């Protein structure tokens, strides 16, 4: 029995080796067949989705224009259905609309617009039909993206540092033929620093690189770039506001917006109503002024908090008295020394009342 078992194993191994040798002789033909089948599978898949989803044949050109009419995201359009997805038009070139500054609330579709543009460009240049009623695409050498937020803890890089590294690579390697997609660059640091960085990046792309760019941002100050840079144009994703609630229309329209609707989106996400109401109160205080009558940051002011009313009245009276004195004095008759003494007395009075 043992001898038979050993012979069986030996015979199996010999057959296995012989099979490998036979296959290796036909390996080039097998590889060619596999490559042909995989190419056929890919082409059939592209043809099938183009037919089912009503794709159109793109026109590829040597100029620097990207013109998309009724463009759709290939994945979301499939999920939502052809008749339910809201299509959008995109026009980019290097002469008139080189950079699109896109503003609008979270969840409105800014990032989807950028991904849609990248997908359509890549599909067109790989030979596929594209999800649009018309697509005219000037050849793109590379697609650069800075979308999303992630850190790199194993290398000691914060989210903001990762963002800056990626943007630095884009600014070094992008060309006039590139497509650049930037999503909320600068959000990982203080507001003023973020605006300054985003502004400078947009200027550099406009003046030096001249690449076709979509720049989505919540920094509404960036819309002022269109006043000084002729090839920067403002766009926004439209929404409809009703009773402090917003309805997303997912439509890209010309012109910027000064509202991000962050509080409304927070409410849709399930933030408690009392927190939302307090956020509206703080927003109102911020929009009115930075400080109240007693020098307290208006962020802390609340209609429900009346415990400092006596203090507020006392300080208001004192400030009014000082203002009356300043208004009554004749500054033309004061010597420099008298003016300094008067100012010193006012400061002392303010310190005593605190």
Characteristic terms for this protein:
single chain; 354 residues; alpha/beta; Rossmann fold; 4 domains; 6-stranded mixed β-sheet; 4-stranded mixed β-sheet; 47% helix; 17% strand
Task: Please give the structural blueprint.
Layout (H helix, E strand, L loop, with lengths): L1 H24 L1 H26 L6 E3 L4 E6 L2 H7 L7 E5 L6 E5 L6 H16 L8 E5 L4 E4 L12 H15 L5 E5 L7 H19 L2 E5 L15 E11 L2 E10 L7 H7 L4 H16 L20 H20 L7 H18 L1
Parallel strand pairs: 1-5, 4-8, 4-9, 6-7, 7-8
Antiparallel strand pairs: 2-3, 2-5, 9-10
Describe this structure in words.
There is one protein chain. The strands form 2 sheets. Strands 6-7-8-4-9-10 form a 6-stranded mixed beta sheet, with helices on both faces. The protein is of the alpha/beta class and 354 residues long. It is built from 10 helices and 10 strands. The chain has helices at residues 2-25, 27-52, 74-80, 110-125, 159-173, 191-209, 262-268, 273-288, 309-328, 336-353, and strands at residues 59-61, 66-71, 88-92, 99-103, 134-138, 143-146, 179-183, 212-216, 232-242, 245-254.
Q: What's the architecture of the largest domain in CATH terms?
A: 3-Layer(aba) Sandwich
CATH class of the largest domain: Alpha Beta
Uncertain segments are 305-315
- Structural domains: how many: 4
Distance between the termini: 105 Å
Q: Summarize the biggest pleated sheet.
A: 6 strands, mixed
Mean pLDDT: 85
Strand content is 15-25%
- What is the tally of helical segments? 10
One letter per element, helices H and strands E, the order comes to HHEEHEEHEEHEHEEEHHHH
Tell the overall outline.
Answer: elongated
What's the CATH superfamily of the largest domain, by name?
P-loop containing nucleotide triphosphate hydrolases
Strand element count: 10
Secondary structure class reads alpha/beta
CATH topology of the largest domain: Rossmann fold
Percent helix, as a range, is: 40-55%
Strand order of the largest sheet: 6-7-8-4-9-10
């Amino acid at each position: 029995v043992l001898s038979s078992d050993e012979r069986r194993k030996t015979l199996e191994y010999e057959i296995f080796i012989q099979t490998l040798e036979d296959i290796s002789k036909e390996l080039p033909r097998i590889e060619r067949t596999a490559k042909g089948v995989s190419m056929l599978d890919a082409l059939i898949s592209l043809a099938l989705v183009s037919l089912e989803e009503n794709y159109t044949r793109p026109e590829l050109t040597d100029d620097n224009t990207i013109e998309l009419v009724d463009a759709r995201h290939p994945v979301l359009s499939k999920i939502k259905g052809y008749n339910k997805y809201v299509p959008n038009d995109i026009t980019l070139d290097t002469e008139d609309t080189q950079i699109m500054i896109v503003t609008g609330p979270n969840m409105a579709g800014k990032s989807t617009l950028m991904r849609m543009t990248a997908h359509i460009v890549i599909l067109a240049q790989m030979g596929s039909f594209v999800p649009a009623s018309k697509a005219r695409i000037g050849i793109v050498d590379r697609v650069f993206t800075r979308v999303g937020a992630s850190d790199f803890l194993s290398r000691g890089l914060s989210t903001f540092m990762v963002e800056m590294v990626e943007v630095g690579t884009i600014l070094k390697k992008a060309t006039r033929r590139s497509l650049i997609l930037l999503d909320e660059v600068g959000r990982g640091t203080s507001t003023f620093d973020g605006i300054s960085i985003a502004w400078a990046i947009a200027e550099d792309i406009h003046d030096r690189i001249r690449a076709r760019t979509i720049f989505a941002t919540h920094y509404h100050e960036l819309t002022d770039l269109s006043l000084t840079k002729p090839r920067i144009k403002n766009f926004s994703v439209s929404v409809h506001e009703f009773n402090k609630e917003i309805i997303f229309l997912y439509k890209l329209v010309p012109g910027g917006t000064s509202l991000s609707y962050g509080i409304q989106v927070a409410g849709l996400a399930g933030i408690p109503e009392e927190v939302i109401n307090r956020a509206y109160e703080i927003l109102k205080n911020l929009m009115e002024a930075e400080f109240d009558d007693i020098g307290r940051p208006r962020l802390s002011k609340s209609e429900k908090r009346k415990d400092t009313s006596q203090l507020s009245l006392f300080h208001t009276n004192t400030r009014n008295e000082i203002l009356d004195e300043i208004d009554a004095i004749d500054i033309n008759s004061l010597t420099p020394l008298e003016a300094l003494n008067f100012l010193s007395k006012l400061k002392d009075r303010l310190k005593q009342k605190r």
